[in-house]
TrEMBL record:
List of residues binding substrate: R99, N101, E119
GO biological process, one term: L-ascorbic acid biosynthetic process
Binding site for a divalent metal cation: E16, N145, D195
Keyword field contains Cell inner membrane: no
Biological source species: Haloterrigena gelatinilytica
Record lineage: Archaea, Methanobacteriati, Methanobacteriota, Stenosarchaea group, Halobacteria
Protein name: SMP-30/gluconolactonase/LRE family protein
Length: 290
């Protein structure tokens, strides 16, 4: 039987991007606008603020590098942070008008990273290659969000939140190229907004539902087959974690600080156990940092 528990009542404004760090046996996630990186230790059942940016610069997402450090994607900047450090160092800058949002490393160590819309333009999806060069791969995106790969590494999923769509692309592992975009899932406009996602060991997609209070599981054809309800309206992202990758962690948001409106668990980190599926280790970035 599936059990959902609140494991860190951080009351994040916008909790996002949970990712398991196997070297440390812990889960990291961010509170985007606060520029805060949190760490949860499931063995001790404790959480702590691991890092905070200078001047409250937002952290839209992060990846784990091959050496165990983290790449932090901020306002047009990518910084490298070593766990336990008090500061981060610049890796590269991207000519973007807005902050980064969701990001994901691919099997070759590149990073796909999306930006938010600005006042006069939409966002874009970029690819940060291992030599730290940047290429725009999808233009005019209305909130770039959750991404993932099928087990055969031939399909890449990408969420455009305000379009209420999750797309599927043909993915070229050798070049990092994306082609043949098609709609995998289109969600009802009045049923919440698709946000972060993860792909489980059965090649089913779990999509967090912002303003929908749940995560929805889709089979490989895009049909919804299950859902997990969370006591928070804004469920922002999901990931499988733990030594066996059999626990599902969910981040949530408490925009405005009103739990009466947003739900008793808004802004907290949740863990679901007892699922009949699991996940696998996330790919690590291998971006040149020096």
């Amino acid at each position: 039987m599936t059990r959902l528990e609140r494991v860190a009542d951080t009351q994040n404004d916008t909790g996002e991007g949970p990712l398991w760090h196997p070297d440390e046996g812990c889960l990291y996630w961010v509170d985007i606008p606060a520029g805060e990186l949190y760490r949860f230790d499931p063995d001790a059942e404790t959480h702590a603020l691991a890092y905070e940016t200078d001047g409250d610069q937002p952290i839209g997402g992060f990846t784990i590098q091959a050496d165990g450090s983290l790449l932090l994607f901020q306002n047009g900047r990518v910084n490298r942070w070593r766990p336990g450090s008090k500061s981060a160092t610049l890796v590269t800058e991207v000519d973007a008008d807005t902050r980064f949002n969701d990001v994901i490393a691919d099997p070759e160590g590149r990073v796909f990273c999306g930006t938010m819309p600005g006042e006069d333009s939409l966002g874009d999806l970029y690819r940060l290659d291992v030599d730290a060069t940047v290429t725009t791969v999808v233009e005019d995106v209305d909130i770039a969000n959750g991404m993932g790969f099928t087990a055969d590494l031939e399909t890449f999923y990408f969420t455009e939140s305000e379009a209420h769509r999750i797309y599927a692309f043909d993915y070229d592992r050798e070049t990092g190229g994306l082609s043949n975009r098609r709609t995998f899932v289109e969600t009802p406009v009045d049923d919440g907004i698709p946000d972060g996602l993860t792909v489980d060991e059965d090649d089913y997609v779990w999509s967090a539902r912002w303003n929908g209070g749940r995560a929805v599981r889709y089979d490989p054809t895009g049909d919804p087959v299950d859902q997990l309800t969370v006591p928070a309206r804004k469920v922002s992202s999901v990931t499988f974690a733990g030594p066996e990758y059999d626990d599902l962690y969910l981040t949530t948001a408490l925009e405005g600080g009103d739990r009466e409106a947003e739900g008793d668990g808004a802004g907290a980190l949740f863990r679901a156990t007892g699922l009949e599926t699991g996940g696998s280790e996330a790919f690590r970035s291998r971006v040149r940092t020096e």
